[in-house]
Structure formats: structure tokens, C-alpha cells
Amino acid sequence: MAKMNMLHAINSALDISMAEHPQACIFGEDVGYFGGVFRATSGLQEKYGKHRVFNTPLTEQGILGFANGLAAFGAPALAEIQFADYIFPAFDQIVNESAKFRYRSGNEFNVGNLTIRTPYGGGIAGGLYHSQSPEAYFAHTPGLKLVVPRNPYQAKGLLRACIKDDNPVIFFEPKRLYRASVGEVPEEDYTIEIGKAEVVKEGSDITLLAWGAQMEIIEQAAVKAEEAGISCEIIDLRSILPWDAETLIKSVTKTGRLVVSHEAPITNGFGAEIAATIQKECFLHLESPIERVCGLDTPYPLALEKEYVPDALKVFEAIKKSVEF
Amino acid sequence: MTNPNNISLNISHALEFIDGHALNIPTLKILSEQGDILDGATKSELDKETALKIYSTMRFIRLLDERMQAAQRQGRISFYMQCLGEEAAITASAAALKQDDMIMAQYREQAALHYRGFTLEQFMNQLFSNEKDLGKGRQMPVHYGSNELHYLTISSPLGTQIPQATGYAYGQKLKHIDKESGELNSEIDNVTICYFGEGAASEGDFHAGLNMAAVHKAPVIFFARNNGYAISTPADEQFKGDGIAARGVGYGIKTIRVDGADTLAVYEATKKAREIAVTTGEPVLIESIAYRLGAHSTSDDPSGYRTKDEEAEFKNNCPVARFKAWLLKQNWLDEKEDEAIKDKIREEILAALKVAEKVQKPALEELVSDVYDTPIPALQKQYEELKEHIKQYPDAYPITAGRIK
Asked: Is the model's pLDDT at B116 over the cut of 80?
């Protein structure tokens, strides 16, 4: 085991994937010699050559169109969108093409070899256009898988699973944690199953659910709650599509309470889907209404970011409200 | 000193703007309307066997289009699109390729698919979205596709196949990478051809796809079918300047413009384009100038936006008639036999239509298969619930109720 930050862990997963298939390609804006704005692809062009690790022109729809074609050919297409905020020009290629390739052709063709990596979320003083969490837009599209890691170990294992998965996957990387999150990561290959949530900590009074960078926030809130005598069960969803309702249902059936937290705006955020499902499946076990602690229905701000974000204090208040209901 | 702008500067002291039409790209034409090789044109290399296969494909597609257009009017299928007027452009370009080169088409290229060997029955199964349709009855009529024939399944959104063709062609090229040096071998064995109309050339995907193909040297042949209209919008409301060909030049792509009603010109141009793509690994653009003789689709009525006179003028310049005239002059075709074959094809089409119409619709399980490689838990649950519901009310769902396992 080696100490790695999240960028090293991602780089390691990409390295293994490039070695595995002679036609695997990494491409996106500035990912070549420069290694990407966050340096996630550092050193890979030197190792695998300019034909397999290369900068693209600045065209997100072009990157995803190219990626769909390359994946349809049968080569692993490891596309990077520099910021999730800039994924929207590629929306049509992802939602109408990647997601529907297999279905519309009766499995004559598919783009299962496609993996899209993109840094998402706030916390880097990035303002409106470098802080968005667009997962809910894609979660409404059958045919895609959406995965979000919370630390370096998860990042490597989940990214390897995404690349090996026979479906197009979007891998949202919490950019706030790229360098901030450091942990033990095996240097060898391993995968973490997509579609399985992880019970990070067991508890009895309330279930706290989040994913990606927001995991750190609910863990901080849980510390405060435990000090106040409330036992929290903490769950990392890890993948949004498909999402592991079963693990959550089991937990809420036990605790009777649920707080869901995500950075994206609350209205039609993925928390809404979770709340609706749990309300139906756990109706007679619920002791209080399901609480959602999320971003406001505004674009992500710059100066008042601290006020905007669903921080540990806000989550703590929601826990209290739920327990005292 | 190297120039970071990636252009060789040609300094001028005269303040002069270049006109948008300055390129004035010529149009390759080999065959006259009467079926004679024009003076100055190089004799075509098209051999008899290929020529007759091209002709029989054009003849078949014309008859299929005619019959299925009528079937749509009778309410037997929901939609149809003909390739009337563009048979030469599509068939001759497909004929200039290898059977296993990839075709990424827009929607009007059924002749290319038939040239590859897509059978009458396969066309009918797709048009009637029955259980034998390779696409499992999920898409509207004319959204054909076949992995075996290297013909990507049609997507309705316009132009999306253009950057995909670049990616696919890049994969074809990467197959020939030297594992030791990481360098590419100079010659490759396959290319991708990407068809699209001049309307699709307005989409962002066109610009993204061409630019990426040029920069990353993908062996793709972009085949622009400039047929004068994008549904009801004439080409002069679609683009300015020297056509789609000028855009190819603008992206640094080797480009040619051909008379799309001239089978020999299209064949020669595409053959040469393929040779360039396989030997240099680079993209090529062909702009075919033809006229869409029919309606855009069965939802369209061209009488609202173009005159009878205009249509008549182009009807006189029929690509199939022009090629037939050449074949007759070569003594490769017999007029009487041709008529007899047409009658036979008409009968076969009618018979195949009647058979396909009666084949049952896809089974209920095809509703949920292929969304993912295997259905995800939420979808499995929804499927089980749906099955229970249908079992409860079988009369309301007659197509699937009796076949649920």
C-alpha cells in the first residue's frame, strides 16, 4: 500500500487501463503533455505516446462525439471534460447517443467502452462555472451509469470498475478533494462494484446519506451529533445510477430517520428521487419526514459560498430537527 | 523560429479582404446527361460487374422507395424517407469502398446498405418494426443498422454521426500502431465514410467532427450530400460562401466537389478519396451536388416551397437514367431484360411487404433489454411490476399478453 492523493489514485487507474488495452486512448483539453489542469493524466503521454494520450481542440461535443465513435469501434475511450460545468455542449452526444447506442440498435452496436471523467463540485472558489454538480441531469437518462468517489481508495477502485464496465459511465471527481484527500491505496489493480452503497459507519438513531465530497460534510455533522448523544449511520451512495436502494432501505428501516445531503440545488436534485423511494419503501418505519440538506436553487455563488453550501452545521441542524420531530 | 500559429505567413502590404466565394471550387463531371464520357474527362475505371451491381441497387431502391412511400400513404407504416435523386451519389460512393469499411449514414442512404447486402426482408422487418427487426422494433422506419454489414444504426438527431465517424476512423488507424515505437504504420486497411446533408453541416457536430479529424488525422471520408434543401429550408438559407466544400478546405482537409447525379464522377472521386485516406491516414471531404427529387420525408410536402418547374428541370437530369444510358451504350445492359427485372422486383417487394406485416411485434422483454448490458435492479423491478399488470389485464395488451414467460 502506498499513500496517494486522489489525483495519484486516478492516474494509477488510468495507467493500468492504458497498459491493459493497446488501443485505449485518453483525450480531452490539455490532457497531453501538460497532464490536464489538475494533472490527473501526468506522465501518461510520455508512457503511451501522443497517439493514445492527446489534447483535443476545445470542443466538448467533439470530444464526446469522437469518444462515442472510438468506443463503438471497440477501443476503451477515456474522455476527460475539464470541468463538469462544461459538459453541457456534449449533452446531446451523451444523452442521445452514448446512452442510447445499444438500445436503439438492438445491441448491434454499443459504446460500453466509454468512460467520461470530469471534476465536479465546489470548494475551490470557482464561482458559477467551476463548481456545479450536474449529476441529476444525467441521472434522468436510462443507459448511463454515474459514479462518484469520496477518497483515493474509492477513486481508483471505482474508476477501474467504470472502465471495465460494459456500459457508458460518467465518473464525477470531487475536485475539492483531489489533493486534500490522502489515503492508503494499493498500487496493484482492484475494482469496487458499481451500484453498491457503502455503510461507512453503523449507527442506530438516524441514517445520513451523501456521495463524493459531501461525505466529508456529513461525517463532520455526525461527530457533532454523536457529541449530542445521537447515533448516526453513515452511508456513501458511491453510484447514483444505478443506485443502491436496498442498502438504504435496510438502514432506514433500522433507524427510522434519513438525512440526504448533496451540493446540487435541492429542486429535482437526486435527493428528491431518494426521498420518494424511501418514503414508499419505508413508510411505516419512518419516525420523521426525510430531510434534504442541499444547495439553494441558485447558481453556485462565489463570495457567499459559505452561506450557500450544505455544510456540517446545516446537516447537524437537520439531524436535530429529525430526531426532535 | 517556429511559428506557434500553425500557418505559414504570407505577408502582404495591400489591405485586401478575401471574398467568401473566392475559392470557386470546381465540380467533377465525367458523364454527360446523354450517357457519354465528356471531352477532357478521364475514362472511368468502373468494371462491368461493379457497374451492373450499382445499377441494380439504384433500380431496387427506386422501386422499394416508390412502394414504401405508397405503403405509408395507406397507413401501413408510420413514416418513410426516399433517396430519390441521390441514388447515384449514395450507391456509387458505397461501391468505391471495401465491404468492411464503416458506413455512418444520416438517414437517406438505404442504397448504400442494400449495396452491402441488406436484404429486402431485412428492410421490411425494420420498416414494420416486427420481432425480426435487427433494431428490435425500437426506432422509426428507415433507422436501419447492421453490425455484420458495418453500417452504424441510424440516429435521428442530426449530424451526431460526424464526430463519431472521426472517432471510429481513429480507432481503425490505431489498430495499426507499432507497439514498440508507438508510431503508426504508414498504411491502414479500413476507412469510415460519413454521410450527411448540407443541413446537418450547420450543426456544431459537423465543425467539431471535421476539426478533430483534420487535427488528429483520422481516415474518414466526409460525404456531404448537398441536395438543395434541408426539409423546407433551401441551401441559400442554410449557408453562405463556397458550399460545404469550402469548409473542408477551411479545416485543412483535402476536398473535392462532384456532380452527385453522375455515377462515374462519384465513383472515381470516392475511390481516390479512399486511396488518400488509407495511404496518408487523413480525412477527405466530398461534396456531392445533387437534387432531392422527392419530399424530405412522408411528413413533408415540397409543393409548399419549390416550384413544379424547378422539379421538372431536375427530373430531366435523373441520375439513374444518365447511368443507364451509359450502360446501354457500353452494351452492358439490355432494355427489355431491364423491364422484366423491374416487374419481378415489384412483385418481390409486394410479397415481402405482406409477409413482414404479419410477423408479430417484439416480445415484451425487448422493452427493457439493451438499455444496459444487463438490466439494472430498478428496471428489473419495473419490468416485474409491468408483467404482473399485463397479466391482470391481458385484453388491454394483446400484442404481448399471451407471450409473457
From this structure: yes
pLDDT 10s digits, B217-267: 999 999 999 999 999 999 999 999 999 999 999 999 999 999 999 999 999
Compute the nearest-CA separation of A144 from chain B (Å).
8
Angle at A99 (CA atoms; ends A113, A248), nearest 5 degrees: 95
- Among A8, A29, A97, A130, which one carries the catalytic annotation? A130
Neighbour tally for A229: CB within 10 Å:
8
Which residue from B minimizes the CA distance to A96? B157
| Least confident span in A166-170, B5-9, B86-90, B96-100 | B5-9
Interface contact flag, A62 B153, Cβ < 8 Å: no
- The C-alpha cell at B111 is 442504397
Residue A133 corresponds to which cell in the numbers above?
454538480
Taking alpha carbons only, the member of B24, B32, B99, B25 closest to residue B274 is B99
Average pLDDT over residues A188-202: 98
CB B172 within 8 A of CB A74: no
- Which grid cell is B227? 441536395
Band (B135; pLDDT cuts 50, 70, 90): very high
Closest alpha carbon to A174 in A50, A262, A288, A57: A262
Structure ipTM? 0.96
Say if residues A64 and A94 touch (Cβ distance below 8 Å).
yes
Alpha-carbon distance of B324 to B59, in angstroms, equals 10
Query: Per residue in A129-139, pLDDT tens?
Result: 999 999 999 99
Surface-to-core class of residue A253, CB atoms within 10 Å of its CB (0-12 exposed, 13-18 middle, 19+ buried)? middle
For chain A, what is the largest distance between any 2 Cα atoms, rounded to a whole number of angstroms?
60
Sorted by where each starts, the structural domains of chain A and their CATH numbers stand as 2-185 (3.40.50.970), 198-324 (3.40.50.920)
Q: Touching check for B141 and chain A: CB below 8 Å?
A: no
| Neighbouring residues of A161: CB distance < 8 A, sequence distance ≥ 6 | A147, A191, A192, A193, A194
* Nearest CB to A74 within list B152, B171, B216: B171
SS3 A114: strand
Domains, chain B, ordered by start: 27-357 (3.40.50.970), 364-403 (no CATH)
What's the whole-model pTM score?
A: 0.97
In what helix (H) or strand (E) does residue B339 lie, and over which residues does it extend?
helix B335-358
* pLDDT on residue B96: 98
